[in-house]
Amino acid sequence: MRTPVALVFALGLYWMGLNQGAESPDSNVWDFVTVAVVLVVAAIAWEVVARVVRARREPAPPRA
Fold it and tell me: Would you kindly state where each structural domain of the chain is located, as residue ranges?
């Protein structure tokens, strides 16, 4: 999952949490915030690992 896609997904979850909290005051919006934060952190970590793996797979440029 690309980082921008994860951010949009996390914002959607956050918005759903806000709507649920507005509809029922006893609900816990922080559950959705936690899920959103975990998704963003996981997407960023995934992107960093993917870039490291991609950089290791690329052949070194030829020396002159």
Answer: 3-55
**CA pair distance 10, 4, nearest whole angstrom:** 10
Instruction: Produce one character per residue of 6-28: b if its CB has 16 or more CB atoms within 10 Å, e if not.
Output: beebbeebbeebeeebeeeeeee
The confidence score (pLDDT) of residue 22 equals: 60
Q: CA distances (Å), 57 to each of 4, 10, 47, 50, 54, in order?
A: 24, 31, 15, 11, 5
pLDDT tens for 2-51 read 667 767 777 777 777 777 666 566 666 666 677 777 777 877 888 888 88
Round to whole Å and give the CA distance between 26 and 12: 21
